[in-house]
Amino acid sequence: MAEKPILIKEMEIGGRSLQLETGRVAGQAGGAVLVRYGDTVVLVTATMSKTVREGIDFFPLTVDYEERLYAVGKIPGGFIKREGRPSEKAILSGRLIDRPIRPLFPKGCRNEVQVVATILSVDQDNAPEIAAMIGASAALHISEIPFQGPIGGVIVGLVDGEYVINPTLAQAEKSLMHLVVAGTRDAVMMVEAGAKEVPEDQILGGITFGHEKVKEIVEFIENFREEALALGLAKEKITPVLAQVDPQVEEAVSGPATEELTAAVRQCIERRLDKQAREAFLDEVKAKLVESFQETFPEQEQSILAVIEAVEKKIVRRFILEEGVRIDGRALDEIRPISVEAGILPRTHGSGLFTRGQTQVLSVVTLGAISDEQILDDLGIEEAKRFMHHYNFPPYSTGETRPMRSPGRREIGHGALAERALEPVIPGEETFPYTIRLVSEVLSSNGSTSMGSVCGSCVALMDAGIPIKAPVAGVAMGLVKEEDKVAILTDIQGIEDHLGDMDFKVAGTARGITALQMDIKIPGISEDILEKALAQAREGRLYILNKILEVIPAPRPELSPYAPRIIHTTIDPDKIREVIGPGGKVIKKIIDETGVEIDIEDDGRVYIAAVDPAAAKRALEIIENITKDVVVGEIYTGKVTRVTDFGAFVEVVPGVFGMPGKEGLVHISHLAHHRVNRVEDVVKEGDTIVVKAIGFDNQGRLKLSRKEALPPEPREAATYHRRSKGRQGRH
Predict the structure, then answer these.
(1) In terms of pLDDT, which residue wins out, 270 or 721?
(2) Does the annotation flag 503 for ligand binding?
């Protein structure tokens, strides 16, 4: 048998080589591409089931992003020592790949498609998620899977006023934004960004800049497929069996359904029905329609309902495009009524309740010591983080029931988006040495709960007295597009997200954007639409910010009385072992005696956390005593520990927990300005006296002087002592 060929193609992205290879590994997958970008290596495979998955009404696409800790030379933590459930970064990376490719499969495709990206080697200067995204596009494109791509993807940074493609680690540290752009040759499919209050025009410029490189990547992948086909390494696309409604059912149902539902939707608009009332009313209309056609088309209830729902979608979209009115009666740029409440929970460190229409989020903030930071066990360089935002979406928020399990991809994705939006305004550890955890509880959901979380969490942060740099708000934008007709919607609700073409979330301060996420259901949108959406989103964001500031115009001047007070000091790193003590004996005793939490960093920074300020102060005094150095020339108040013929030993820094303090010798000649014959005439053991550090002897022992710490004696006293000396001599 002839040896199978291997195809390797190379292009430059961001000044580094990107290499695609197929034909060497994973030969039984539908498509397999080994991507190398710098020293980052990712294997991406794409495989489709041979049969249709029955009983579903969605496209069953799965994207698995498999992190392997050997890629960065790590052994997994924990007892089992192997990778377990995916990290949050892995879940977010999988979502990043899924979102731009999902709209590019044929509508009605029900064959399962699985994309697996296995991270084999990581060079921190070359992001594995971007290599995986490009690899997924290439693997799908060379497979038989009916993928209507390819796509490309890049990260755009903003460094020293210049856009940078796929910034290196050093560039990323200086960059004002981390903007991921993915799309086809013709349009942008997905945008995701974290930014440091970057203005809209710079964000838009970054998207345009990134899309130009995306076009080059798309062309590169298309050429890769052509060469792979010529070598027998790519497959011809198959024509899948698509789920379709019986044409007879569609023809019979469409007319009556259009008439009935047009009237029903108009009533919803005129009466401004809320979500529950609208759904109940429309469900009743749809149920009657289904019943009226069941006799004609027995056992085709699902097909009848599918036609009815397709008609409903067209009607709602037509009202938006032709009459400029939404199903709840709002104008296209109108925001639902907003309510903001701060400090509604008495014992938490900070809380905020944000309500927009029927979307309601309760956010709660908790402050902890630095040691409470989250430990990260993934492929990144960061080992911990001190700011966390978690998002919970219980079933009652939509009036439903379902099992309550651990956070899913939605919860992790929405929590990360809100965290990204708020992180740029969180004060640094040097000025606010706390670990901060925010939890957003979705109490009621009717669209854009992630942006509701941003708003509620901003209120909670200010209620907690955290000195954030600026308040942040977020708004979700929507799009309805039919040929040349385009409508951009501000503050979309659930039905508009479901029936629309775009979910575009924008968060930021009055100065600029801090986070952005765009998902598209159609094959891309133009930059002109993006520009209009960003401008309309800014108006909405500023309106919401004003509503927040009316309730809480600035962070509270004081922390909650239930929040820990953290004081910090810096000690000589060489003295850390003295504070910790043998086997941690000393630090444990300090904690037990005072009830505080203590964190000591390798560079000598010490953080003491306690709800009781007096306890924190006591712990600080103990640590200062342990680490205090005696400075020559300084005055100290000390305790006489021993008395000898030649002087007195004085402890100027007390010991703690059985450990010796720091003591020195006051020679008899330094006890007083006058001559002292017996040490006991001036001091005795247990006395507290004032002394001055005057130096160290040849063996490093501390020398002290009581005489130099005292004011000069009056002339009369000095004369008396001289006379006494004379009398003693005559005797």
Answers:
(1) 270
(2) yes
